[in-house]
Amino acid sequence: MNEQIKMYAKWFYKVYPRSSLVKTQIQYPRRKNRTMKNSILTRLILILSLAFALFGCSSAEAKVALMLARGGLGDKAFNDSANEGLQKAAQELGVQVTIFEYQQDAQEDNIRKVAQDDGYTFIIGLGSENSAAITAVAAEFPQTKFAIIDSTADGANVTSVTFSELEGDFLAGALAALLSENNKVAYLGGADVLVIRRIQFGFEQGVKYVNSNAEIVVQYIGGVDDFSGFAKPDEANQIAAQMYADGVDVIYAAAGGSTLGVIDAAKLANKPIVTTGSDQRYLAPDVIATSRTKNMNQAVYMLIEMLTQDTLTSGGILLDYKSGGIGIAPLSAFVPGSVSSAFSIIQADLESGKIIVQPFDGQ
Questions:
Q1: Disulfide check for 71: which of 84, 231, 281, 339 has CB 3.0–4.6 Å away?
Q2: Helix-, strand-, coil-residue percentages of the chain, each rounded to 5
Q3: SS3 2
Q4: What's the rounded Cα separation, in Å, for the pair 90 and 131?
Q5: List of E strands, the chain
Q6: What is the pLDDT confidence band of residue 13, given thresholds at 50, 70 and 90?
Q7: 258 DSSP 8-state letter
Q8: How far is CA 125 from the centre of its chain?
Q9: What average pLDDT score do residues 53-73 get?
């Protein structure tokens, strides 16, 4: 807001230069001079008042709601990472923040109530399961700002933040192939939805880059558009255990909260796993080789910072590996040195542009 005041003050003095004010003081008698200065001061006050009225709220006035994705807090990944960015924004930017759990079959009404009754100035939804609800409610409340992360939604007051995960998933696939001793790896997705198929596409490219003869086993926990698959760790555990029993020696899991079940299966089988979302190595440092991170915390913080700086606009924002929106955590200590060295070369070649990951154009 201070920057906006400076901007309007600059505009004011462009219209009424300081030099002209000096000349005015010389040309008018004392009484008229005082009247002239008062008139100019009044105009300046009106202009600055208008600036406060027309533009966004200050940090203290900003009230932000975060609508979680399925699985909620405690998933050690998607939702927890977003909450990390939310709490950082509350501390550093001084905004008021509240978290709302996902409500199956009632999410649109849930968001509508937040917009209508609770006076939030900015509502952020996470994941595809919030997309349709954000689009619907944003149309009803054009004065409220909305955002969706890791999906898209429509509206003149909606900002959509999406990720290009392909390069990070390519690296995850390359590492899985390097770690595999019997040329058999697996991809376990939370549901048959667009983002999970896109992650799979990048992963498969990385596997084949290292070993064109590798077998890739693919399975989804949930069916088509069945987001419940991201919150079924017990079922994920059973699927992963069977994969390991069938000769898979590395699993890449992109399954939200269900990944916790896959990690338990990896621990029991003493087989490597690569996870997604946030850096999860601390959960099982003896089996989690690395995590392909989707930095939800940075996305949430970025949006709120833009809100407080009055730079938030509608439309799309794309975050990728090069921008830091997607990353790869350091390799765990159990990864052999030979694998680590080979992986470092692949990573460097990707970052230099020597390796080009093919874009995903599927549905």
A1: 231
A2: 50, 20, 30
A3: helix
A4: 24
A5: 63-67, 96-100, 122-126, 145-149, 158-164, 184-189, 215-220, 250-254, 273-277, 288-294, 315-320, 326-328
A6: very low
A7: G
A8: 10
A9: 75
d(CA 269, CA 295): 29
Tokens 């100019």 label which residue?
40
What does the DSSP assignment read for 319-330? Answer: EETTTTSEEEPP
What domains are there in the chain, each with its CATH number? 2-54 (no CATH), 63-164+298-320 (3.40.50.2300), 166-295+327-352 (3.40.50.2300)
Whether the per-residue pLDDT at 32 is higher than 70: the answer is no
Encoded tokens for 158: 């909606």
* Sheet of strand 96-100: strand arrangement: 96-100, 63-67, 122-126, 145-149, 158-164, 315-320
Question: Whole-model pTM above 0.90?
Answer: no
Q: Where does residue 325 rank: exposed (0-12), middle (13-18), buried (19+ CB within 10 A)?
A: buried
CB 190 within 8 A of CB 158: no
CA 91 to chain centre: 19
Does the pLDDT of residue 299 top 80, yes or no?
yes
d(CA 343, CA 59): 44
- Find, among 73, 104, 110, the residue nearest to 226 by Cα: 104
Tell me what pLDDT residue 105 has.
85
The structure tokens listed for 330 are 């350091």
- 120: Cα separation from own chain's centroid: 20
- The chain-wide mean pLDDT, for the chain, equals 86
